[in-house]
Amino acid sequence: MILEKISDPQKYISHHLSHLQIDLRSFKIIQPGALSSDYWTVNVDSMFFSLVLGSFFLSIFYMVGKKITQGIPGKLQTAIELIFEFVNLNVKSMYQGKNALIAPLSLTVFIWVFLMNLMDLVPIDFFPFISEKVFELPAMRIVPSADINITLSMSLGVFFLILFYTVKMKGYVGFLKELILQPFNHPVFSIFNFILEFVSLVSKPISLGLRLFGNMYAGEMIFILIAGLLPWWTQCFLNVPWAIFHILIISLQAFIFMVLTIVYLSMASQSHKD
């Protein structure tokens, strides 16, 4: 338990890598280390912090939008305007065509992923201590982007948009032609084209989700290893440099997720040419 002095680093690391899970069939909390169903288990902590951070982002931007002024802007309005300009510039430079959804989607993806990643900078024992001391919960993880279920869910949302705009712009026939007539434009190679294009299509959401998950999981793991293996009075000498460097990773991963979303949707929105 987090409140006790854990002399075994393996138990400490295992505890911090355990999600707060609920079995939907019985609505009971699953104890860390217990066997659980793959399909009936929900990582409550990842869902909770994802929704809280998303609501926080929408609330702040909504309030600033309602109070926006044409005069001298405040610091918060200035920061949000800079973010808007940054996202809008990337959308204009990478998205070919006009679509009212792309810019808001890119902004949402960038800010939401950034906020989820930013939770990795919270002291590793802070929320687990509160959850166990106050709410008597057995486990708590606060970085949603370090949960593969969250990252793959987001990437699947982007994937469905890719399929939607591909069919919308090119039609079912055009979509089928892309699968069987590229890269080798000959009926003989149709099966090979289909295998190559299908793998390429499916790999987009998988790589998009796994890239974000892998980087954030590795960053979280380093913080846990530092806390679990080193005496408390030496941890700051590694935690502080790693946290400073990790700020770059947090921002970069949010930017990459946004850029790939724009690029994939731009490719899907290009009209088919025979």
UniProtKB/TrEMBL annotation:
Keyword Transmembrane attached: yes
Gene3D superfamilies according to UniProt: ATP synthase, F0 complex, subunit A
PROSITE patterns: ATPASE_A
Residue spans crossing the bilayer: 47-65, 100-119, 148-167, 212-234, 240-265
Any GO MF annotation of the entry: proton-transporting ATP synthase activity, rotational mechanism
Topological type in the membrane: Multi-pass membrane protein
One BP term from GO: proton motive force-driven plasma membrane ATP synthesis
Keyword Disulfide bond: no
Cellular component, GO annotation: plasma membrane; proton-transporting ATP synthase complex
NCBIfam families on file: ATP_synt_6_or_A, PRK05815.1-1
The protein's name: ATP synthase subunit a
Organism: Buchnera aphidicola subsp. Acyrthosiphon pisum (strain 5A)
Lineage of the organism: Bacteria, Pseudomonadati, Pseudomonadota, Gammaproteobacteria, Enterobacterales
Gene name in the database record: atpB
